[in-house]
Amino acid sequence: MPWLLDLFCCAGGASVGYARAGFDVVGVDIKPQPNYPFEFYQADALTFPLDGFDIVHASPPCQRFSDLAKRNKNAHKHPDYIFPIRHRLAISGLPYIIENVEGAPISQDLLLCGTMFPGLRVLRHRKFEMNFSIEQPKHDGKHPLVYTLDKRKPHYKAMNQDTDFVMVNGGGNCSIEAASSAMGIDWMTKNEINEAIPPAYTEYIGREIIGAFL
């Protein structure tokens, strides 16, 4: 099985998707990740050895580029890890993937949305920069209404968090049970789910990689 290194792995949303696609996965994060389900090293993603891996995935912290940071005008207070990790991966010669939010300064070689995957109930747009190409799934931009606790919204109290699309973030817009179901994640805390991507995203990427290159 090909070896994949997941840098900035957090609790393993991306890692689980790659494992389902057929990769052996190793995770690295600067913080302890007691719920990470595979081999894990608490280490700096900018210095951890890349030797022996077939491909590298990196999900640098996105706070600097998030909508919340823009609204709060405090983006400058968050470090930019994208430039140094891109430089490191580019000179490694390995196939690599960098994942981040829509506002991040990475190439949009692939855009994934929860509406592309049956069973997911979350929008969660994410961009992926790669030094190779895979097929972009169709995305018509039509999004369903999302369950909300905002009383100003006309559909407040008109939706069911257990069956409809939900917003999974730190604002507490749904329960952990609803977030878990919507994201296809059943091993994380609510805070960990808030920061994760659905495993379905990287399972799609992983299957495309194995089918085309490995």
How would you describe the overall organization of this protein?
25% of the residues lie in helices and 15% in strands. It has helices at residues 13-21, 67-72, 82-92, 176-183, 190-195, 199-212; strands at 3-7, 24-29, 39-42, 55-58, 96-100, 110-112, 126-130. Strand 1 (3-7), helix 1 and strand 2 form a beta-alpha-beta unit. Helix 1 (13-21) runs parallel beside helix 6 (199-212).
Features:
alpha/beta, globular, Rossmann fold, 214 residues, 7-stranded mixed β-sheet, 7 strands
State the low-pLDDT regions, or none: none
CATH class type: Alpha Beta
Order of helices and strands: EHEEEHHEEEHHH
CATH topology (level 3) name: Rossmann fold
**Annotated CATH homologous superfamily:** Vaccinia Virus protein VP39
Counting structural domains, the number is 1
User: Largest beta sheet: what is the strand line-up?
Assistant: 3-2-1-4-5-7-6
Let me know the largest β-sheet. 7 strands, mixed
Which outline best applies?
globular
What's the structural blueprint in terms of helices and strands?
Elements: E1 3-7, H1 13-21, E2 24-29, E3 39-42, E4 55-58, H2 67-72, H3 82-92, E5 96-100, E6 110-112, E7 126-130, H4 176-183, H5 190-195, H6 199-212
Parallel strand pairs: 1-2, 1-4, 2-3, 4-5
Antiparallel strand pairs: 5-7, 6-7
Helix pairs in contact: 1-6
